[in-house]
């Protein structure tokens, strides 16, 4: 419903994300001609920077409200964690090739390196966590009555 202010392609070229002056995010899958995420809200102000994680699983949007919010690119599910640390508008975002880190730049002159594998994993408190003997997987259990298996290198939910 407002001007588009930022746009980014996923690394595989299948998805495109758009940020808007009204604080909403949209993600389109061009191969399927499908709108994956339409006008997702979360930011309270204009989005000035948008990018995908290098593995194309996350959409990151930086805003004039000094926060970065994340969504799962394939489902449009908003990740509840909000990345906070800048004192002024977030003006740019970039993802590392390994998909583990993202960097943000701000009008306050700061750069922050974020670890993308530390976002909320369960809907309730984590009750236990274990790393596989070979270090490749992480298993987590939660009071939400789920056990989840993760790729230890990328943080991807398996």
UniProtKB/TrEMBL annotation:
Where do the TM regions start and end? none
Where do the WD repeat units fall? 1-29, 40-81, 83-124, 119-158
Entry keyword set: Repeat, WD repeat
Fetch the InterPro entries from UniProt: WD40/YVTN_repeat-like_dom_sf, WD40_PAC1, WD40_repeat_CS, WD40_repeat_dom_sf, WD40_rpt
Gene3D superfamilies noted in UniProt: YVTN repeat-like/Quinoprotein amine dehydrogenase (2.130.10.10)
In which domain of life is the source organism classified?
Eukaryota
Q: What PANTHER family is this protein classified in?
A: F-BOX AND WD REPEAT DOMAIN CONTAINING 7, WD40 REPEAT PROTEIN
Q: Under what name is this protein listed? A: WD40 repeat-like protein
